[in-house]
């Protein structure tokens, strides 16, 4: 009888020990998994912030380089061209015969130099959008559209609710401007559209930039899956990642394509912003 | 006629409860359409088979007839089905082969064990439980579950274990087989039709954990999402 009682006790004890072990195993698996995922998440976040910083540096370098080229064009080439124009004007005065071959050649050279000066000025402005720094996004986008409409048969409309809003940080404004440029250029190059609509909307939380066209449209998801995304679209996503923005591509039922960039608002701080003015040499740290 | 069944339920409620709780995971499995995934289709077959065997044993027990033959038959079949799920769930080809090999060897072993203990199969009255097969089944099942846990820890393929159907199923079975591994061999000596020997509360532990594993399977299946079935 005592043996049976001992057997029952031993059986209970062994079963209990086995159950405790099973509970321990389950708890261990769950805790281990949780910790490993947390560690991986932390590592991913470090990697992400590192690549974001790298990207930010790369884009800053690009902007600095643009400014440097614009500055060199203005200071060196621009000055030289102005001097050439002056010299040609003087030469024009020296040549006495009004209908001589030399005078017509000088006149032709003067026209060429003037055109070159205009081109250099346009390139400098394209490289660094001075209007953006001085008057803000709406004005810069309007100016960009005007320039495009002069050169194309396109109809471009622009609606903005940003006029009454506070100016955003220079980096945010520049990013939005560059994204708008890229989206519009993409529409012109690839969509075969005749009409482009740009909308800029700023509310208390987000800035929305919408670029729609009536062209052939495209499937962004399919492009990503097939690894056919070009540098343009990748560049947009990279630029947005730095300012915590996102972009969505929609295929409207009426056709064409619609890109919506959403960026958190970053109103300009009290501190004086870094100038984008091209004709001051930027400090390279 | 129903007096026998009601009488059995009132005399042994803990033993009868798992028979009816088996219906719960079957309903959830069918409702969530988890059978589209092969491991859960096997689980459905196992649950239906278990329900059928349990109902037969319940009926025989209610009519005071020795039902241990059905228990012995259920061991190789249930192991084949449960281990079959792990063939689909384990990633390593070596482990898969091991599980498949164990199914064949265990089926042969359990038949041998049953025949050895009960040489006269027609004498159902004195039929007794297998001494080794159920213990080995417990050990093998614990082993496959631990291997599965090892794989999910190494591969990190499941971000949230609470949402994983198969993790819940494994937890239920791990606790059930852990509770049963030491009791199983003892039952051969205690569960006799004539002169049974009581081992007290220890005999009830496996029934408690049988209910637990059925509930764990139900919770796991409730988390099953059709669109994610290939993931976990």
Concise synopsis of the structure shown:
The complex is a heterodimer of chains A (285) and B (232). Chain A has 285 residues and is an alpha+beta fold. Chain A has 7 helices and 5 strands, in the order ααααβαββααββ.
Question: Can you walk through the features of this model?
Answer:
- The complex is a heterodimer of chains A (285) and B (232).
- By secondary structure, chain A is an alpha+beta fold.
- Chain A has 2 domains: 128 residues; 141 residues, Heat Shock Protein 90, CATH 3.30.565.
- In chain A, 63% of the residues lie in helices and 12% in strands.
- In chain A, strand 2 and strand 3 form a beta hairpin.
- Chain A is elongated.
- Chain A starts with a helix and ends in a 21-residue tail after the last strand.
- The relative contact order of chain A is 0.10.
- Chain B has 232 residues and is mostly helical.
- Chain B has one domain.
- Chain B contains 10 helices and no strands.
| CATH level 3 topology of the largest domain in chain A | Heat Shock Protein 90
Provide the number of structural domains of chain B.
Answer: 1
Give Rg of chain A in angstroms. 31 Å
CATH superfamily of the largest domain in chain A: Histidine kinase-like ATPase, C-terminal domain
Annotation, overall tally of beta strands of chain A? 5
Low-confidence stretches of chain A: none
For the record, the CATH class of the largest domain in chain A is: Alpha Beta
Biggest sheet layout of chain B: none
Overall strand count of chain B: 0
The coarse overall form of chain A would be elongated
Bin the strand percentage of chain B.
under 5%
């Amino acid at each position: 009888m005592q043996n049976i009682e001992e057997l029952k006790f031993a059986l209970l004890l062994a079963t209990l020990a086995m159950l405790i072990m099973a509970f321990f195993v389950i708890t261990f698996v769950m805790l281990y998994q949780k910790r490993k995922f947390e560690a991986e998440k932390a590592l991913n976040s470090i990697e992400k912030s590192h690549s974001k910083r790298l990207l930010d540096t790369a884009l800053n370098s690009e902007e600095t380089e643009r400014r440097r080229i614009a500055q060199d064009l203005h200071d060196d080439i621009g000055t030289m061209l102005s001097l050439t124009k002056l010299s040609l004007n003087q030469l024009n005065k020296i040549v006495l015969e009004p209908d001589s071959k030399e005078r017509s050649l000088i006149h032709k050279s003067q026209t060429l130099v003037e055109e070159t000066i205009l081109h250099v000025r346009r390139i400098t402005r394209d490289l660094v959008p001075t209007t953006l720094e001085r008057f803000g996004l709406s004005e810069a986008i309007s100016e960009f559209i005007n320039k495009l409409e002069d050169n194309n048969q396109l109809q471009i409309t622009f609606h903005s609710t940003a006029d009454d809003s506070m100016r955003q940080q220079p980096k945010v404004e520049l990013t939005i401007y560059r994204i708008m440029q890229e989206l519009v250029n993409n529409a012109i190059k690839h969509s075969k559209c005749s009409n482009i609509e740009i909308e800029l909307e700023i509310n208390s939380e987000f800035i929305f930039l919408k670029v729609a066209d009536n062209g052939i449209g495209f499937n962004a998801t399919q492009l990503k899956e097939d690894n056919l995304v070009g540098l343009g679209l990748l560049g947009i996503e990279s630029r947005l990642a730095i300012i915590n923005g996102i972009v969505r591509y929609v295929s409207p039922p009426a056709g064409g394509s619609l890109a919506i960039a959403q960026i958190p608002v970053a109103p300009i701080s009290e501190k004086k912003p870094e100038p984008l003015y091209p004709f001051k040499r930027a400090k390279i740290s | 006629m129903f007096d026998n069944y009601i009488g059995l339920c009132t005399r042994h409620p803990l033993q009868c409860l798992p028979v009816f709780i088996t219906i719960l995971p079957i309903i959830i499995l069918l409702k969530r359409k988890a059978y589209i995934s092969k491991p859960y289709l096997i689980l459905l077959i196992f649950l239906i088979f278990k329900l059928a065997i349990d109902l037969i044993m319940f009926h025989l027990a209610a009519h005071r007839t020795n039902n241990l033959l059905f228990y012995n038959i259920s061991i190789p079949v249930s192991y084949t089905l449960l281990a079959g799920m792990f063939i689909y769930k384990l990633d390593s080809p070596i482990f898969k082969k091991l599980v498949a090999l164990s199914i064949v060897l265990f089926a042969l072993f359990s038949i041998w064990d049953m025949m050895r203990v009960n040489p006269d199969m027609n004498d159902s009255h004195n039929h007794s439980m297998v001494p080794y097969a159920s213990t080995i089944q417990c050990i093998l099942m614990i082993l496959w579950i631990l291997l599965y846990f090892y794989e999910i820890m190494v591969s990190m393929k499941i971000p949230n274990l609470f949402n994983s159907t198969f993790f819940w199923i494994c937890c239920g079975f791990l606790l059930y087989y852990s509770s049963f591994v030491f009791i199983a061999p003892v039952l051969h000596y205690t569960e006799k039709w004539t002169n049974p020997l009581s081992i007290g509360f220890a005999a009830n532990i496996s029934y408690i954990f049988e209910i637990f594993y059925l509930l764990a399977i139900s919770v796991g299946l409730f988390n099953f999402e059709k669109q994610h079935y290939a993931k976990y």
